[in-house]
Amino acid sequence: NVVLSQVYSKTDQDIGETGAIVPVLVLRMEGEKIILESRWDENEVSQPERYGKEGTVKNQVLYEGPLVRGQWIPFVFHAKFSYDPAGDGFIQVWRGGEKIVDVTGPNTYN
Fold this sequence. Notes:
Layout: E1 2-7, E2 25-30, E3 33-40, E4 58-66, E5 75-80, E6 90-95, E7 98-104
Antiparallel strand pairs: 1-2, 2-3, 3-4, 5-6, 6-7
């Protein structure tokens, strides 16, 4: 599992958030696949230390595609970050000129 790129949001320590900072957007390689994940939390205080075990952070795989070895593959990202489920957040991603992700909804932490 190799991380290629990450986008982070800072913790709000002044209101009691503690623990590890969990990235809001992750592009990674796993075996022979490239995977793009989005993580978000609309709660005022996120609990990422419990991520995956009843924690407040949500995770969505936005893309899973083949890893092509021996050549450059450009990725282009266009995003507006929002934690509000009724808000105007979106993520659009192109891989080698082909749009592979076009989602709306929450995509960062409160």
